[in-house]
Amino acid sequence: MLWFFPAIVVIVCVAYLTWTFLKPRRLAASKRSMILSQWQSAQSQTDPHRRLLEADSVIARLLEALGFTGSMADKLRGAGKILPGLDGVWDAHKLRNRIAHEPGLRLTEVQVNRAMDAFDRVIRKFT
Known about the structure:
Elements: H1 4-22, H2 29-43, H3 48-65, H4 72-79, H5 86-101, H6 109-126
């Protein structure tokens, strides 16, 4: 009978931690509207490099609105379990970094579209 109390405590702790870290996160209506507006603006960019840079920025603001802090890498690590297609989002962010740090870099439309699709899945999940 002595094992009963510790077992209950462990079950309650595991349930609480699971609920805390895996609960669905939602945006307030005003933030959702702002993020969607910024996303539409990013998608409308005709220059593919600029489109990707702005899309990455929108994702960073979305993750911040969901409560994740730090650099974009920190936000992605923190949100990893709830992000759809995490590997694709990481690849898209790495592509953004290449644009920002490699002058003269030219991307193919396929690369940009793949990155935008990864970001779009995140936008669709949380807005």
